[in-house]
Design goal:
Blueprint: E1 2-7, H1 14-25, E2 30-36, E3 41-46, H2 53-62
This protein binds copper (II) ion.
């Protein structure tokens, strides 16, 4: 299990938080995604045999946020 933290731009409220967390949790291999709104960060726990940093970043971007 690997942990990665991304700076995410554009998250302003609890709705954004949910959106980003759900987008990440829907990825096969992601076990945990936690947004810190004040820091504009998301921390992701993932299995690097099943997914990759580029897949995680793409999911955040597809949800409508800058990463
Ligand atoms: Cu929002």
């Amino acid at each position: 299990m690997e942990t990665a933290t991304f700076k995410v731009g554009g998250m302003t409220c609890g709705h954004c938080q949910r959106r980003v967390e759900d987008a990440l949790k829907n990825i096969d291999g992601v076990s945990k995604a936690t947004v810190n709104i004040e820091k504009s960060e998301v921390t992701v726990e993932y299995d690097y045999f099943r997914t990759s940093l580029s897949v995680l970043k793409k999911a955040i971007a597809n949800a409508g946020y800058e990463v």
